[in-house]
Automatic annotation (TrEMBL):
Superkingdom of this protein's organism: Bacteria
Organism lineage string: Bacteria, Pseudomonadati, Thermodesulfobacteriota, Desulfovibrionia, Desulfovibrionales
Gene Ontology biological-process entries: carbohydrate metabolic process; fructose 6-phosphate metabolic process; protein N-linked glycosylation; UDP-N-acetylglucosamine metabolic process
Organism this protein belongs to: Desulfonatronospira thiodismutans ASO3-1
Complexes and interactors: Homodimer.
Keyword Transmembrane: no
EC number: 2.6.1.16
Keyword Cytoplasm: yes
Gene Ontology annotations for the cellular component aspect, listed alphabetically: cytosol
Job of this protein: Catalyzes the first step in hexosamine metabolism, converting fructose-6P into glucosamine-6P using glutamine as a nitrogen source.
Protein name as catalogued: Glutamine--fructose-6-phosphate aminotransferase [isomerizing]
Amino acid sequence: QKGGYRHFMLKEIFEQPQVITDCLAGRMDRKHNRVTLTELEALPTPSRLHIMACGTSYHAGLWGKYVLESLARIPVNVEIASEFRYKELVEEPGTLYLSISQSGETADTLAGQRMVRQKGLPVLGLCNVVGSSVAREADSVLYTQAGPEISVASTKAMCSQLVMLYLLGLYWGQNRGTLSAREMSQNLLTLETLPQTLTSQLPDMQKRARQLCPEYSRARSFFFLGRGIYYPLALEGALKLKEISYIHAQGYPAGELKHGPIALIEQELPTFALAMQNHLLDKIGSNLMEVRARNGKIIALTNPGVELDIDEKWEIPQLGDPLNSFLALPALQLFAYEMAVYLGKDVDQPRNLAKSVTVE
Ligand code: M6R
């Protein structure tokens, strides 16, 4: 069942190249450089998007905000479903509500979606489980086609959600004319080659993650820092580490550090930074200098050629934004996985957690 892997989580991390291939199948028209999402044909292109989700799916939604706003120029609001469901709903014409849920059974996401539908407003579901409640009750549903996810810690499901959000950005971008033919073609080409790149990188990523364990598994707490699209991934890296290794971790947008959390930095509190080669590299570089000046240890996930004053450099190939996310995400997952294994934790069944949270 585990296909030769020690845990379902590891198997599911290594399934991500196939997950990307399956998500893209039938949805990319390379001949005309278009994205085809037949599920959306009955829905008008929204002028605003409101995302509701929990946990890892919420982090995917936050990532989607950056990508959709940039590709399709559609303003996106993302809310934790347990907060959203108890708020006064402010109706804005042209808004489409998007429920993101791997299981499609998360009580809060479903309740948020029901509240929206009671008001006669449109809901699109982004789900993995076919025929789940979120899928059945939405006006339209996009399936992520990631296959069953057994491990409580969500990995390949998030990867599939990111691919679908990216495709949504391209789809609405092409409908709204915000992307040139050249941009469409470049985006589709890089997406197409992604599974192959990821397959070749995963074994080395696992080795690199393992190397970091002896020293860093002693930490009682971690910061995960990112900026732009890497901020939601920093949140996800922290969640994964907490969930399966039981090491406290907090994700932050790096620029927010000096507004309070920097007070915690010392030698015993390491930072895991996402510092890709992009327009924000100088910014995160100077945030990391502030950490360094307070004796904080730093692991940085970065691209070749980037110069940073840090303790551990972890290089991944430069695919550009947002494609680097699809390498950064498994690196974070493998880091949490190897730390949990090193500490002897029950990786697939972490304490106090259920795979799908069907009660409040
Ligand atoms: O099935 P859903 O995507 O609605 O689940 C949401 C969260 O419960 C889930 O992502 C949770 O945070 C994971 N265990 C994280 O690994």
